[in-house]
Amino acid sequence: MSVEDRFLQSHVTGDLSGARSSLADNSIVIYENGDERTRDAFIGDLERNSYWSGLTSHDRVIHIYDDAAVTHAILMIKLGGGQSDIVRTTGVYAKQAGAWRIVSWQTTPLGDAAKALSPH
């Protein structure tokens, strides 16, 4: 989904307007550690924190149900200092005014065993 691509790339490019336009006004973003953020709080976090240096998405699955959709994927995230992270993502979308928006986004860490699979 292009909205998911735009949302993920905003983490790399720092494109706050891209992140904002991807998220519904009442969206919730749940971080790997379980912390929950509203759209505005998430945008504030993205504005203050360093961005990812890159990412690769694998095994993305999209299920569309009329005006709702669910995605699942595995992300290999390149962080600063040569570090990386691997997470599983779940995105929940609603079509609002003819455009897809993220209403819920959650990342789940896959742990050290998954990092051994990373080519980085």
From TrEMBL:
<protein>
    <submittedName>
        <fullName>Nuclear transport factor 2 family protein</fullName>
    </submittedName>
</protein>
<dbReference type="Pfam" id="PF14534">
    <property type="entry name" value="DUF4440"/>
</dbReference>
<feature type="domain" description="DUF4440">
    <location>
        <begin position="2"/>
        <end position="102"/>
    </location>
</feature>
<dbReference type="InterPro" id="IPR027843">
    <property type="entry name" value="DUF4440"/>
</dbReference>
<dbReference type="InterPro" id="IPR032710">
    <property type="entry name" value="NTF2-like_dom_sf"/>
</dbReference>
